[in-house]
Structure formats: C-alpha cells, structure tokens
Design brief:
alpha+beta; Cytochrome Bc1 Complex, Chain A, domain 1; 4 domains; six-stranded mixed sheet; globular; Peptidase_M16; PQQ_synth_PqqF; metalloendopeptidase activity; zinc ion binding; hydrolase
Amino acid sequence: MTDPIRTLTLANGLHLTLRHAPRLKRAAAALRVHAGSHDAPARWPGLAHFLEHLFFLGTARFPLQDGLMRHVQAVGGQVNASTRERTTDFFFEVPVSALGSALERLCQMLAEPDLSVERQRREREVIHAEFIAWSRDDQAQRQFALLQRVSPRHPLSRFHAGNRYSLAVQDPAFQRALLDFHARFYRGSHIHLSLCGPQSLDALEALARPFANLFAEGSAQAQQPPPALLDAPWVEHPATAGCLELLFAHDALPPGAAQALELLLSCLNDSRPGGWLDALRQRGWLRDVHSETLYAFAGQVLWHIRLHLSDDAPPAEVRNLLHGWLASLRQSSVTRLNDEFGRLQQRREQAASALELARRDSADTPFAALDAQALEAFQALLADLPASAHGHWPPPEDEPLLRADLPGARAGLPDDVAISALLPPERGLATLYLHWLIASPLRERFHHVLSQTLRPLLERAHRASLQLDFSREGEHWQLRCAGSPGAVIRTVALALEALRQPSAELLRTPAPSKAPQMPIRALLSALPDRLHGRAAPPQPASLLDQSMLDQLWASAPRQGLAIGFDLTAQAALGAVLRHAPGKPGGRPSAPTRSPGRRWVRHATGGSEHALVLFCPLPSAAEGPGRLLAQALQGPVYQRLRVELQLGYAVFSAFRQIQGQGGLLFGVQSPKASPAQILDHLFTVLNEVVTLDTAAQAALAAQFDEPAMPNAEVAYWAWQTYLATEPTDLSQLQRSILNTTQPLLDELLKSLLDAEHGWLCLANGEAPDERWQ
C-alpha cells in the first residue's frame, strides 16, 4: 500500500512534501537546496562546502551546545549534510516527539546563520584537515582522477572541496561572495523540504509551515547550464592492477534521466544467472564490481563501472561482453523491465526508514516505476551506449527473494538457535543471526573465500532490500539476514548452501592483498581481535580444498538467535537451519575483562596519527554507561574537534563488541600524536559530569520498543544474547532512569581507574610506563 503524500508550495516559494507512513517509529526531515559547489564562484573553490560547515556552528537563538547536531544526538537521532555539485542536502531522523524542535533548529540555522569571521577562521582549519585526509585517501584520489577524464571546460574536472588557501576568509571579496551565495540560494524558491513520519498529513503540515516560512521570499535564480561532459559517450579509464574503470557520459537526455539511469543500474547490478555479472563470474574473471551515478543535472548524466578483475581476465573481452549485454537489453521488453523495477521499488519503499523516504521525496525521486517521461529517457540512454552482437543473454528467471510467502517445509528450530520476543512479528522485520567460533588459523583465508562465494547473493539481497552480511570479528564468523520473514528464509537457505560448498575455483584462488584503510578505520577493524588479547594469526600458505573446509565446519560451535518470526515462520526457518554448517554450541560464554590499562601499537597505512580507546563496563552498568557516554559526547567533540581542531574524525559513544559493552573514543589527527590525543581525552574525562535529567529521560525513551527502530531492537537483542545477561528493554530503561549523580560519579571514577580494563589501540608509542 502506498503511503499518503501531500505536496504544496508555500507563499515564499518553498516546495513542501509530506508523507504519512503509519508503520514508521521515527520521523525525518530532508531539506534540499538547489545550489551546490558548481554554483559558487570559480574564484573561491569550496565556498558552498564551507558554508554547509558554518551552519552547524550555532546561532544566536540556538548556540552550538543547543544547536541541531547536539539536539539530535541528545534524543538518539542521526543528522548529516552533503554538498554536491548542484545541490546541498541537510537531513535528520529523530523520535516522533522531537521532529518539531529539530526542524526549528534546522530551518533557523539555514535562514539566519552566524557567519562571523572568527568562526570562519576556526572552521577553515577543519576543512583543511578534511582536505589533507582526502588528498591521502586512495579511493578519493581514484575518483578525482576519474573525473579528470571529463572535458576540462566542465566544472566536474576541478577541485571543489576547499582548503586553507582557497577559502580566503580575510579577503573582503570572499566575504561578499559568501553572503551573496547565501542570499541568492538559501531562500524559499530554491528549497524543497520533505517531512516523513507516522503523524497525520495535517500534523506534519502544521509542524512544517511556521519553520519553513523562516526563509525569505524571492524569485528563483537560474543555475548556469554546464558545458558538454565529454566528446565521446564513453571512456575507458586506463586499467591498473586488475582494475578496469568504464566512464559513461550523456548530454541532452530527456527529463527523467536520473530515474532512467537508476533502472539501468538496477539491471546491470542484477547477479542472477544470465546477466553480464554472471557471465564474468562464470569465466572466473570478476572479483568485485561497483557502479554508481557520479553526476546528474540538466539532461547530463555521468556514471561509471569499476571492475576488479582476475589477473587472466582480458579487458577487451570484458568490454565486448558488456556491449553484447547492452544490445540484448535494447531488445528486451521495456514494460517487463519496468514492471520488475516497480516491484523492487515497492519493496524498497516498504523497507525504507523515515530518513530514506524523506531524502527520496526531497530529491523528487520517490520509490516508483518509471513514468512515461522517464521511460523515454531510458530509451535515449540505451541508444547512447555502445552495443554489439556478442554473447548469449537469456532473460533472467523471476527473483525468489521478492516473494513474501513462506516456504512450505516445516521443522522445529535447532536447540542452538534461541528465540527473542523483543521485536513483535507484526513489525514486519525478521532477523536471523548465526554465529560460529572458528579456531582454525585458516579462518581469515576461508572467510575471504566464503565472502566471495556469497557476493552474488549479497548483491541480489541488497537489490531486493534485504540486509545480508557475513562478517568476521576475531575468532568468530557471523551471518546476519533481515527483512520480511519469507524472503529471509529463502535467502538464508541459499546462503547456507553457498557456505557449505564454495566453488573449487574460489578455493584455489590466492587471497588478495588487503586494500589500505584510513588509520582510524584500520584501528576499528583490529579492535575485536585486540580486545581479547589476540593479534590476527599469520596465514598458512597451504592450498585450500573442500575437505579442509568440511573439517573446519565439523569443529565449529554454532549459536543463533531468531528475532521477529511468528510460530509459522519459525517452523519454516527450522526446516532450513537443519542444514546449517557447524555443530551445536549452546549458549555463548560471558565476555572476560581484566583491570588495568593496555596499550597496543597497531601499524596502519597513511601518515596521520590515530587512536581508539575502549573502556569496557559490566553488563549491569549498561544503563549508567550509556548515560555517561551521552554526557561525554558533547564535551569530547567540543574540546577535541571544535576548540583544539585535532582533526575531522573525532567520536565518542557507547558501543557493544561481541556482547561486551563499553565507552569507545576515537580520533584521527594530522598533527597530534596518539599520546597527545590521549592527554586531551584525559582532560575531558577528568572534568565533572553533571546529570541532566531531561537528557536522562530522553535517553530512556530511546529504548522504548514502539519508538525504537526495528533494526536497533534486533541488534540490541543479539548483543544482549552474546553478553549472556538476561534482560529486556524495560530493565535497561529503569537502569537509565534510576541513575543518580553519585552513581554517575562513581562510574566515571571506576572508568578513570580502569577497574574493568582499558584497551588503547594506536599507531604510535605508549605515553609512559603506566600502560602494559
């Protein structure tokens, strides 16, 4: 059933879209400004991005400590912004009760910002730190190099992120340009605001009108049309180390080109037998694929395909197969393609969060099949692409992952799979977690093989709006699948079959070298292993085969948790899990903790310093621990990110890692060493933390199941199961509400004394002998 939607234009020209979605537990707002980095003066690269940053520094009405970001974080929501070439987006998702207060802060900070020069100088250094990280990030540099293939006359080929030198804060001409950009584009006629939530359309409109009217009136300012993208419709980027990049550019397409490209990419990313990706995999050539839209504006579309190929894959034949598949797509029934796309879009809408729905609405791209105009653009898009008679391309069979009915077989659930009643089946989200303890030193290599085996299914699941992942944390492998019960059961059946018997070719394939990560991400990836005192074992060089995998599975204890399945769905799931690899493992063992401070130096790529500090807490202290983490989040960010400007990667939060809860702090900095970062953290942690009763009540309200996102309920149920501490959400709420100031002080003291152990993971030396 389609959600009721209302669209209207206010007196100031602002376009408003309202969506009533009764199934949602949260509400969201997305505000799109039709101006981006290409609309700023070429003399000042990064001006639009810089302005986006300045908005979040607070205003006279809502200073930083009560601004949008702090307010949304305090109620357990999420908030972000993005500056693209021709648009700038601001968006948040919050509990229903906080929609009005968050929307007021959003609209007020955009309509009446504080653009004082002093705060500009401080924030410019943050932008410069981002620029340094961007310039050292391999993936970012690959994309920048890719964009150099477009015409040098097109603004896509230029630098737009901004840095210390392009943002001439001291120049009066820059200040005039900044104020002019805001005055021209941050007015009603250039804004599309969308609200989405379980509230009625009338209630949403009553919330939106007073804050949307804060924006000034004014006629729309035309965005300058860009020059041609390329001289040819497609360009092959020079192949490097098994990577083939194909860049496609289109000019003068009919309206609806962005939606048409979405359909094309949906077809291209279809991993079912008979398609292009399947043809590459059948030949053993494809290791990974990534395709995305890079740019879409005024009838222009730029998109690319990045292929990671095996060493023996011939790029020319890969390209010929693509051309042959494109030719077959031209001959396919557009009606049939669009009908299936409509079913996919319907599933996406049913699975989407309030934030995803609001963002789609603000971009005028609802989850729907193509209309007549977009279908015309699709035909023009296909006609603009290279095609040849090459290969055999049978039409794909119907996608079983889109079926909602339950499989017919029934059986009882295995004893090692527990049932959680935390998420009622009527919520419509079923989640299965399966967990194996893998003692073999070959676990990392086999995990890579099995991940590659599952990749086509992961792609199909993602396309069908199912969540499927197969992860490794230390000695554990974990399979998770979430979505509608029938689709989850069918997906799990296919996943278990693939895990039991991967292809012989994949078993023989050598493990590739690991791609470099940003230092902070590398530390977070290593944290689960290091938390239990282990380093990743050296990988034996022996060849892998099926018998070795059979032995590994035979000795792997297995546990699982099913959440959101009713009795009938549990029986259908039980029939599938009878064939799960591994051996029954019973309940997981409780996490172990050792007092004292432990410093582990972990080598990372990149030249920047990084530190991750994890402070475990007993399960009984989860409520006060979450409250302490909430109270520290603002001061940590204020001190390290805003005042000291250590870097743009600064975070602090409560986290659960394999059932072990605790406070997690992380910083990546181009200038401060890990020891210096730790000193700054100590300074904040040694300050008095005052209990805020309003924040306390707001935190407790986040763990009320009817208001808590379904995926978060399922994740919390799983972490609680791993922690071996029987509890429920109401107990956690009471624990939060019963926390007093003395109890908070006592918890902070025990944390500072490392009574439950500290793990500091860093890419530098320990500061002194106090660290083990």
